[in-house]
Specification:
The protein has 159 residues and is mainly alpha-helical. It has two domains: 79 residues; 72 residues, Nuclear Transport Factor 2, Chain: A (Roll). It is 48% helix and 11% strand. It has a three-stranded antiparallel beta sheet with strand order 1-2-3, with no helix packed on it. A hairpin with a 5-residue loop joins strand 2 and strand 3. It is flat, with a radius of gyration of 23 Å. Keywords: Signal. This is RcnB family protein. InterPro entries: RcnB.
Amino acid sequence: MRKMRKLIVAGLLAATVVPTVASAQSYGEARRSEQRLREEQRDLRQAQRHGNRRDIREERRDVRDARREAREDWRDYRQSHRDVYRAGRWNAPFRYNQWNVGATLRPNYYAPRYYISDPYRYRLRPAGRDLRWVRHYNDVLLVNVRTGRVIEVNRGFFW
């Protein structure tokens, strides 16, 4: 009976670890396909300098294929991590403004409902004392909540 419990516990632990390994692997695949794209573009530039028309045509085709593969890999990665890369309609009860560093916001623009509670999840640096990461449509603002002053702006963060 104890062996059975140990097997069940081991199976449950393995089931929780496997998705994190798979997500890291897909991110790595996306990065590698981007790297292949850069290599293909470098080969194309060399072929344009030294090669004949046939080599250039083949290199262009390779670059096009590598670009398509990189796009598909990133699309697959974003779809499998929808909770991190949310896209689409995110509307607030006020219209979009393009804020700049140093601007002062009214409190309704940085209300607690717009705080990003876990900045590490979105690969944002930790906010300091009295600072909060705030979502404004697809932008992310680092705001001093005591003064309302914008410290940092990341435009188009949520595509």
